[in-house]
UniProtKB/TrEMBL annotation:
UniProt domain Alpha/beta hydrolase fold-3: residue ranges: 107-303
Organism: Pseudomonas lutea
Short name of one Pfam family: Abhydrolase_3
Similarity comment: Belongs to the 'GDXG' lipolytic enzyme family.
Alphabetically ordered keywords of this record: Hydrolase
Record-given protein name: Alpha/beta hydrolase
Keyword Amino-acid biosynthesis appears in the UniProt entry: no
Record's keyword annotation contains Hydrolase: yes
Matching SUPFAM superfamilies: alpha/beta-Hydrolases
Any one GO molecular function term: hydrolase activity
Length: 329
């Protein structure tokens, strides 16, 4: 029986969208909630772990949605892309129409709960990042379950990082990861450190999924308040991990030894289900004497607002400033 003193009992209540954010952000939040006040995304259900066909079908549907969303961000005058295969790893190499910095590179690790987000969406994302930073971007189209559980994605990220290091000096490289990509970015550097690989110049982690055990406070406090990610991703986490321990640092890098990691940019929002991931990572990096910035946006859910709200644009500018400040001049 649950301990009646272990926690706060909440009665049913409606949490309003605050007036402290832009009108565009409020409208974005409103669009993601039904008339009953329940987030639209809460109606989605995940297949059972053994249901391969169910996961493949869901992946296909989500891939189309992701690709359409990212494609809207790709400008008519944009980066060209060449897709290369290195061993079993697919890498989309995007070159901006105007190269601001020769010899520099941005490695983009896409989000998607470690199960979704590859293919056309990954390719388009590499184009967006290349144009944003004015450098060559390497989008890692890592393998995913159900056919390729852990450590396939992490292996692919290491393969891609080695490929980049063969072409760029490590201090000219910055690694960026969104959500699940943030998990892989840190896990890749932890494993790369063990294998003697040099660290990049900096690390950008946007609402990173750093704890697959979902032990942080916000996994309960922001449940259903995060209209983008209203509930647990544990079914995806277990599908990705297979038989591996979710608490292992290569799966939950929040639990790893962080000494030697590069300067880090962390972003989250007060309504982000993964808020605790960023907050705890910030404290751990500080204790390891790693230079770190933590950017927390008011009422922002997982992944931001519409992408065009003033807060989203401000975040993009913050990231660009951080990236430019950590490349050699």
């Amino acid at each position: 029986m649950d301990d009646p003193h272990d926690g706060v009992l909440l009665t049913q209540r409606r949490v309003p969208f605050p007036s402290s954010i832009s009108e565009q952000a409020r409208q974005a939040l409103q669009r993601m909630v039904g008339a009953d006040g329940v987030p639209i995304n809460a109606s989605y259900s995940m297949p059972a772990n053994g249901d391969r066909e169910g996961w493949i079908a869901l992946q296909s549907a989500v891939q189309r949605q992701y690709a359409a969303t990212v494609a809207k961000k790709v400008m008519p005058k944009t980066a060209s892309v060449e897709t290369v295969m290195v061993d079993q790893t697919v890498i989309h190499v995007a070159t901006p129409d105007t190269m601001d910095r020769e010899g520099f590179a941005y490695v983009d690790l896409h989000g998607g709960a470690l199960v979704f987000g590859g293919g056309d969406a990954c390719r388009a994302s590499a184009q967006v990042e290349a144009q944003k930073h004015g450098v060559r971007c390497y989008g890692v189209d890592y393998r995913m379950p159900p056919d390729h559980p852990y450590p396939a994605a992490l292996d692919d990220c290491l393969t891609a990082y080695r490929y980049v290091l063969e072409r760029h000096l490590p201090y000219n490289v910055i690694i960026g990861g969104r959500s699940a990509g943030g998990n892989l970015a840190v896990a890749m550097l932890l494993r790369g450190r063990e294998e003697g690989l040099p660290m990049p110049s900096a690390l950008v982690l946007l609402s990173p999924e750093l704890d697959l055990t979902e032990s942080g406070d916000s996994f309960k406090v922001n449940q259903m308040v995060d209209v983008v990610l209203p509930g647990s991703l544990m079914s995806c986490n277990r599908l990705y991990a297979g038989e591996a321990d979710l608490a292992h640092p290569y799966l939950s890098p929040l639990f790893g030894e962080l000494d030697g990691l590069p300067p880090t940019f962390l972003q989250t929002g007060t309504r982000d289900l993964f808020l605790s991931n960023a907050v705890r990572m910030h404290r751990k990096l500080r204790r390891a004497n790693i230079p770190v910035e933590l950017h927390v946006f008011e009422a922002m859910p997982h992944g931001g607002f519409s992408g065009e709200a003033p807060e989203d644009i401000e975040l993009i500018q913050d990231v660009k400033l951080f990236v430019r400040s950590h490349w050699p001049s």
